Amino acid sequence: MRLLRGTRRSVTDIASNFRMSRPAVSKHLRQLRDAGLVATHQEGVTVMCELNARPLRVVRDWVHDYETFWTESLESLKDFVEENP
Q: pTM to 2 decimals?
């Protein structure tokens, strides 16, 4: 996914960055596509891939909400413990 940040790449170009077969890379890309994280487009005989970061942003926002909750809760607990030895 890092390879696709900010740019579109062909499956062949992506596969050249890994020590595994092109079919294995294609399988991983298919799984990412099925998860909605990668979009593919046919350009002639070349399959181009691009990152779809929207689902990751949803997860980031969800985690951020819980991070804020727990940070505030832990700070409140710390204050309580320090005030009530």
A: 0.67
